[in-house]
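Sequence in, structure out. Go.
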Amino acid sequence: MPDFIRIDPASKVPPYEQIRASVANAAANGDVPVGFKLPTVRALAERLSVAVNTVARAYRELEQAGVVETRGRSGTFVAAGGDDQRAEAVAAAQEYADVIARLGLGSGEALDIVRAALRQSSPSV
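Output:
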């Protein structure tokens, strides 16, 4: 059972989003390779002490984003297709970091700007 998926019960972030972000970040950082088999929805729900539907929603969103793929009864795996999306996100982040450096803004302010932009484009962030 992977230990990179954790839930912080005190967090204001919904559990499904914490699961989704944990898997997406692990895949983006290369902590889990393409083809890595994720736990079943039921097994992960039991381990994290959350509802099965919570894990199922996280897996659905990950699949829609191309981060994972479900292969029927074989299970859910980290997908290669998400690599293009991650590469695009990394390139955009680097461009943003370059602009922030050029403007002389601090990293705290830069992160605040990103959070505000994410909230504007996706209110659940």
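Check: Residues 82-103 form the longest helix (22 residues). The chain has a mean pLDDT of 89.
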